[in-house]
Every structure is written in structure tokens, then in C-alpha cells.
Amino acid sequence: MVAVLGGIGGGMMFTSLMMGFTGIDSYIIRATGLLIATSGSVVAARRFLARGLANIRLVLFTGVPYALFAVIGALTAAYVKQNLGEVGEAAIRVSLGTIVLVVATLMLFGGGRAQSPEIKNVDGFSQKLRLGMSYWEESLGKVVDYRVSRASVAVLVFCVAGFLSGLFGIGAGWAIVPTFNMIMLVPLKVAAASSSVLMGLGDTAAVWQYIKGGAIFPLLAVPCLTGSILGALIGARIMIRVNARFVRWIIIAIMYGAGLKLFLNGIIRLINL
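The chain above was modelled as a monomer; its predicted structure follows.
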């Protein structure tokens, strides 16, 4: 529920917490985390699309580089698992811990997000794509029209976000939402809703690489998916009516704790090798 409201995806929170505080093999955790990110996003996306809150043009445009590099990331994860052994496991934990801490810090000090950013000039490439749309803002009681800018820069960000999502099984809402909102200047609610739809589209392609590798363990995946889907349904309903930023502090606290634990676990493993 909290992940949907924050637009970061359940995979980020699940993967970092499970890898930081359990001894389960990280490949299984990352596979389950990606499955959770996919399922939770798909469930939430249905409502966002039905209400016109998600920008389908934006999702389809950014979904191509995101999905492609998510698959590449998942294939890289399989290579690390098969060829690097304990060194690869430790490196994954240190890397993911670092990413989680960086993301939490960006969320803490990244106060530049705006509910409805103002765009003075739209570049020629973005204007040709015609990605802007409109949505009903319930808190204002009116239709809000918006435009989209800097599409060419955003494509590069989505390539990196997709790769990290597939490699670490974390989803990439933590990167997608600020990219939509702060780079492309999409309203925050639309950014968070479009993020859920995009992860449901892109991470579905990546999760099949983990399924082929036998990393989905049903006794772990089924109860986790059940909780994720229920939370996504609740979060999607709440998000329509509230300011999505109020959960920021909860997410930051969780991510700092999990990121620090992950980083220390990875360092200890490397020292003991």
C-alpha cells in the first residue's frame, strides 16, 4: 500500500528488506521482488487507466527502452548467479545497499517535486511526440491539462532504470516517478500513476528470465504476492483522493534501515571470503 502511494513499487521495499534481514538466497529474493513489482503495478494500473490518471502515451513511449534494458538486467543477474558465486552475491548486496541508500537520500533532500510543474518551453522532439494529456483532479474539482518536455533525456534514464530493475529485482518506481515529474515535468499524481502502469509493462518482460532460471519459489512468492496485491488495491483507491507525498517519510525510514543493513551484510561477506 505504501509503495503504491509513493510510486516506488513494492519490489524495492520487499527486495531490500528481505535481502537485508533474511538469509534467503538473493537470486530467489530478487525474482520474487520483481514478481511483486509486476503484480502490484498491474493491479494498481487497472484503476489508474480506468480513471484516466495514467498517461498511456507516455507509458508506451518510455516502456520500450525500459522493458528492453530490464530484460538485459535480468540476463546479467543470471550470469552473476551462475559464474561469480559468493563474490557475486556479496557484490550484489553491497551494490543494492548503496542504491537504496542513495535513493533514500535523494528522496530526503529532493524537495523539487511539484504537484503540477509549470512548463514554459517544450523542446521540438517532445512536441512532435504529443505526449501531453489531461486528467480530472478531484482535489481541485476540475480538469487539468499538462504538457511533457525533455523526452530525449528521459529515454536514457529509463534505459538505466530498466537495467537496475531487472538486475536487482526492485522495480524502478523510485527512478520513474522523479524522472516523469522533475525531468519531463509531468504532474506528480500522473507521474506516480504512470509509473505503476510502466512497471507492469516493463517488468513483466524481465521476470520471465527469472522464471526460466528456476528462481520463483511458490511457498515464498504466493503469500508475498497476496499481500502485495491487497496493498496495491488499497493504495490505488487511496491515491485518487490524497496527496501522494505524505508517505515519503515512512518510505525514507524503511529504506535507510534496509539499505544500511544490506550494505553491511555485503561488506562482511566480502571480508570473510
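Residues 190 and 242 are 13 Å apart (CA to CA).
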